[in-house]
Amino acid sequence: MNNIFAALPDNLDAEVFETLIDSDKLTVERIVSKGHTSPQTGWYNQESNEWVIVLQGEAKLVFENAPEEHLKAGDYINIPAHTRHRVSWTTPKQETIWLAIHY
Amino acid sequence: MNNIFAALPDNLDAEVFETLIDSDKLTVERIVSKGHTSPQTGWYNQESNEWVIVLQGEAKLVFENAPEEHLKAGDYINIPAHTRHRVSWTTPKQETIWLAIHY
To answer: Which of A39, B22, B84, B96 is most buried, by CB atoms within 10 Å?
Structure first.
Protein backbone atom coordinates (compact mmCIF):
# COMPACT_ATOMS: atom_id res chain seq x y z
CA MET A 1 0.00 0.00 0.00
CA ASN A 2 1.26 3.48 -0.86
CA ASN A 3 -0.11 6.98 -0.46
CA ILE A 4 -0.50 9.38 -3.36
CA PHE A 5 0.22 12.39 -1.12
CA ALA A 6 3.39 10.92 0.40
CA ALA A 7 7.03 10.77 -0.65
CA LEU A 8 6.88 13.97 -2.66
CA PRO A 9 10.08 14.68 -4.59
CA ASP A 10 12.60 17.03 -2.96
CA ASN A 11 13.70 18.42 -6.29
CA LEU A 12 10.95 20.13 -8.24
CA ASP A 13 13.12 22.07 -10.66
CA ALA A 14 11.03 20.27 -13.26
CA GLU A 15 7.69 18.46 -13.02
CA VAL A 16 8.11 14.91 -11.72
CA PHE A 17 6.35 11.99 -13.44
CA GLU A 18 6.15 8.61 -11.69
CA THR A 19 4.56 5.52 -13.22
CA LEU A 20 2.12 3.69 -10.95
CA ILE A 21 0.75 1.19 -13.49
CA ASP A 22 2.36 0.24 -16.76
CA SER A 23 0.48 -2.37 -18.75
CA ASP A 24 -0.23 -2.94 -22.42
CA LYS A 25 -3.69 -1.45 -21.89
CA LEU A 26 -2.94 1.69 -19.95
CA THR A 27 -0.41 3.77 -18.08
CA VAL A 28 -1.19 5.47 -14.79
CA GLU A 29 1.12 8.11 -13.43
CA ARG A 30 1.44 10.57 -10.60
CA ILE A 31 2.54 14.00 -11.70
CA VAL A 32 3.84 16.57 -9.20
CA SER A 33 3.97 20.20 -10.33
CA LYS A 34 4.81 23.38 -8.45
CA GLY A 35 4.45 26.53 -10.47
CA HIS A 36 5.30 24.70 -13.70
CA THR A 37 3.65 25.01 -17.07
CA SER A 38 3.97 22.35 -19.73
CA PRO A 39 4.97 21.55 -22.33
CA GLN A 40 7.72 24.17 -22.49
CA THR A 41 6.59 25.22 -25.95
CA GLY A 42 3.52 24.51 -28.03
CA TRP A 43 0.84 21.93 -27.19
CA TYR A 44 0.51 18.40 -25.94
CA ASN A 45 -0.85 16.34 -28.83
CA GLN A 46 -1.04 12.78 -27.56
CA GLU A 47 -1.58 9.46 -29.33
CA SER A 48 -3.72 8.12 -26.49
CA ASN A 49 -6.66 9.36 -24.45
CA GLU A 50 -5.90 10.87 -21.04
CA TRP A 51 -8.16 11.08 -18.01
CA VAL A 52 -6.68 13.37 -15.39
CA ILE A 53 -7.68 14.42 -11.88
CA VAL A 54 -6.13 17.01 -9.57
CA LEU A 55 -5.88 15.58 -6.05
CA GLN A 56 -4.08 18.47 -4.37
CA GLY A 57 -3.24 22.02 -5.40
CA GLU A 58 -4.57 23.92 -8.41
CA ALA A 59 -3.90 24.03 -12.12
CA LYS A 60 -5.18 25.60 -15.30
CA LEU A 61 -5.58 23.68 -18.55
CA VAL A 62 -5.98 25.36 -21.92
CA PHE A 63 -7.49 23.59 -24.92
CA GLU A 64 -7.23 24.85 -28.44
CA ASN A 65 -10.27 27.01 -29.25
CA ALA A 66 -11.83 26.58 -25.82
CA PRO A 67 -11.95 28.50 -22.53
CA GLU A 68 -9.35 27.82 -19.87
CA GLU A 69 -10.31 25.26 -17.21
CA HIS A 70 -9.30 25.95 -13.59
CA LEU A 71 -8.91 22.64 -11.77
CA LYS A 72 -8.94 22.33 -7.99
CA ALA A 73 -8.81 19.27 -5.73
CA GLY A 74 -11.14 16.58 -7.03
CA ASP A 75 -11.71 18.09 -10.48
CA TYR A 76 -11.25 15.66 -13.35
CA ILE A 77 -11.43 15.88 -17.11
CA ASN A 78 -11.14 13.51 -20.04
CA ILE A 79 -8.82 14.55 -22.87
CA PRO A 80 -9.39 12.55 -26.07
CA ALA A 81 -6.33 11.62 -28.14
CA HIS A 82 -5.04 14.44 -30.35
CA THR A 83 -6.84 17.13 -28.38
CA ARG A 84 -4.27 19.88 -28.26
CA HIS A 85 -3.85 21.18 -24.73
CA ARG A 86 -1.36 22.64 -22.33
CA VAL A 87 -0.93 23.28 -18.63
CA SER A 88 -0.89 27.08 -18.52
CA TRP A 89 -0.49 27.45 -14.73
CA THR A 90 0.01 25.48 -11.55
CA THR A 91 0.01 27.14 -8.16
CA PRO A 92 3.46 28.08 -6.84
CA LYS A 93 2.14 27.87 -3.25
CA GLN A 94 2.15 24.10 -2.87
CA GLU A 95 2.67 20.91 -4.83
CA THR A 96 -0.10 20.12 -7.29
CA ILE A 97 -0.62 16.34 -7.40
CA TRP A 98 -2.25 14.86 -10.49
CA LEU A 99 -3.30 11.32 -11.25
CA ALA A 100 -3.27 10.68 -15.00
CA ILE A 101 -4.62 7.61 -16.82
CA HIS A 102 -3.37 7.21 -20.39
CA TYR A 103 -5.47 4.71 -22.35
CA MET B 1 -15.12 19.04 -15.97
CA ASN B 2 -16.56 17.22 -12.96
CA ASN B 3 -15.51 16.82 -9.34
CA ILE B 4 -15.01 13.44 -7.71
CA PHE B 5 -16.20 14.78 -4.34
CA ALA B 6 -19.39 16.37 -5.71
CA ALA B 7 -22.87 15.12 -6.50
CA LEU B 8 -22.78 12.37 -3.89
CA PRO B 9 -25.80 10.06 -4.01
CA ASP B 10 -28.65 10.85 -1.60
CA ASN B 11 -29.52 7.20 -1.17
CA LEU B 12 -26.72 5.11 0.28
CA ASP B 13 -28.78 2.10 1.33
CA ALA B 14 -26.30 0.23 -0.83
CA GLU B 15 -22.87 1.20 -2.18
CA VAL B 16 -23.13 3.30 -5.32
CA PHE B 17 -20.97 2.53 -8.38
CA GLU B 18 -20.68 5.10 -11.19
CA THR B 19 -18.71 4.53 -14.38
CA LEU B 20 -16.38 7.39 -15.33
CA ILE B 21 -14.56 5.69 -18.22
CA ASP B 22 -15.76 2.64 -20.11
CA SER B 23 -13.47 1.54 -22.92
CA ASP B 24 -12.36 -1.81 -24.32
CA LYS B 25 -9.09 -1.39 -22.38
CA LEU B 26 -10.28 -0.38 -18.95
CA THR B 27 -13.15 0.70 -16.75
CA VAL B 28 -12.85 3.49 -14.23
CA GLU B 29 -15.49 3.95 -11.58
CA ARG B 30 -16.28 6.02 -8.56
CA ILE B 31 -17.54 4.00 -5.61
CA VAL B 32 -19.28 5.65 -2.67
CA SER B 33 -19.59 3.63 0.55
CA LYS B 34 -20.88 4.56 3.99
CA GLY B 35 -20.56 1.84 6.56
CA HIS B 36 -20.93 -0.87 3.91
CA THR B 37 -18.97 -4.06 3.57
CA SER B 38 -18.81 -5.97 0.29
CA PRO B 39 -19.47 -8.35 -1.22
CA GLN B 40 -22.40 -9.40 0.97
CA THR B 41 -20.99 -12.91 1.27
CA GLY B 42 -17.67 -14.50 0.38
CA TRP B 43 -14.92 -12.81 -1.62
CA TYR B 44 -14.44 -10.68 -4.68
CA ASN B 45 -12.63 -12.85 -7.25
CA GLN B 46 -12.27 -10.69 -10.34
CA GLU B 47 -11.30 -11.51 -13.91
CA SER B 48 -9.36 -8.25 -14.28
CA ASN B 49 -6.75 -6.38 -12.28
CA GLU B 50 -7.96 -3.54 -10.07
CA TRP B 51 -6.07 -0.48 -8.89
CA VAL B 52 -7.97 1.34 -6.19
CA ILE B 53 -7.41 4.53 -4.22
CA VAL B 54 -9.39 5.97 -1.30
CA LEU B 55 -9.88 9.71 -1.84
CA GLN B 56 -12.08 10.46 1.18
CA GLY B 57 -13.08 8.48 4.25
CA GLU B 58 -11.62 5.21 5.49
CA ALA B 59 -11.91 1.55 4.61
CA LYS B 60 -10.45 -1.82 5.47
CA LEU B 61 -9.57 -4.42 2.88
CA VAL B 62 -8.96 -8.05 3.69
CA PHE B 63 -7.02 -10.38 1.41
CA GLU B 64 -7.01 -14.12 1.73
CA ASN B 65 -4.09 -15.22 3.92
CA ALA B 66 -2.85 -11.66 4.52
CA PRO B 67 -3.23 -8.98 7.19
CA GLU B 68 -6.03 -6.46 6.91
CA GLU B 69 -5.14 -3.16 5.21
CA HIS B 70 -6.55 0.07 6.65
CA LEU B 71 -6.86 2.64 3.87
CA LYS B 72 -7.20 6.38 4.51
CA ALA B 73 -7.32 9.31 2.10
CA GLY B 74 -4.66 8.93 -0.57
CA ASP B 75 -3.87 5.26 0.09
CA TYR B 76 -3.83 3.08 -3.00
CA ILE B 77 -3.29 -0.58 -3.69
CA ASN B 78 -3.09 -2.83 -6.73
CA ILE B 79 -5.16 -6.01 -6.67
CA PRO B 80 -4.12 -8.52 -9.34
CA ALA B 81 -6.87 -10.53 -11.06
CA HIS B 82 -8.16 -13.48 -9.03
CA THR B 83 -6.78 -12.13 -5.76
CA ARG B 84 -9.56 -12.92 -3.33
CA HIS B 85 -10.43 -9.88 -1.25
CA ARG B 86 -13.28 -8.14 0.49
CA VAL B 87 -14.12 -4.77 1.98
CA SER B 88 -14.47 -5.64 5.66
CA TRP B 89 -15.29 -2.12 6.90
CA THR B 90 -15.96 1.42 5.74
CA THR B 91 -16.44 4.27 8.17
CA PRO B 92 -20.08 5.02 9.04
CA LYS B 93 -19.13 8.63 9.86
CA GLN B 94 -18.86 9.96 6.31
CA GLU B 95 -18.93 8.85 2.71
CA THR B 96 -15.87 6.90 1.62
CA ILE B 97 -15.03 7.81 -1.97
CA TRP B 98 -12.99 5.33 -4.02
CA LEU B 99 -11.58 5.59 -7.50
CA ALA B 100 -11.17 2.13 -9.04
CA ILE B 101 -9.41 1.27 -12.29
CA HIS B 102 -10.26 -2.18 -13.70
CA TYR B 103 -7.78 -3.23 -16.38
So the answer is: B96
